[in-house]
Fold:
Amino acid sequence: MPTARRSRTIAAPADALWAVVRDPHHLPRWWPRVTRVEDVEDGAFTEVMTTSRGKVVRADFDLVRSDEAERSLTWSQRLDGTPFARLLKSAETEVRLTPVQSSDGLAGQQGAAQAPAGAGTVVTIELRQALTGFFPRFGGFMVRRAAGETIDEALDALERISG
Structure:
């Protein structure tokens, strides 16, 4: 299963970042190629994306896990009956926020990474995708590379909007 994971420390409080990442309406601000989000209700939403060639693509997601205390959430893409099902058996996105504990021990929370005061929040995004057909043998590397690029763009955007 191709998995891509990236972490970055962003100079913003975890609560402020959590308000952005937990609300699907904010996805166009930080998730690559998402132009708008529709049908947000009961832990489900639809991303409307635009490809590099200008084609509009819709993808439906379900929130499968959200933990306010840990500031982590996982979305799963609905694949059955979609063009994505030709390539993917499953696709999940996990986002975790970990407040960075200041060197004086006053900021952050237990278990947070040690860093200089005011360092912000470690944002970790992981994309897990299970491929179908012959793609697992030949396409895993390309899928992992593309997922890593997507995560890097998302982290860049979170950094831009938070600071």
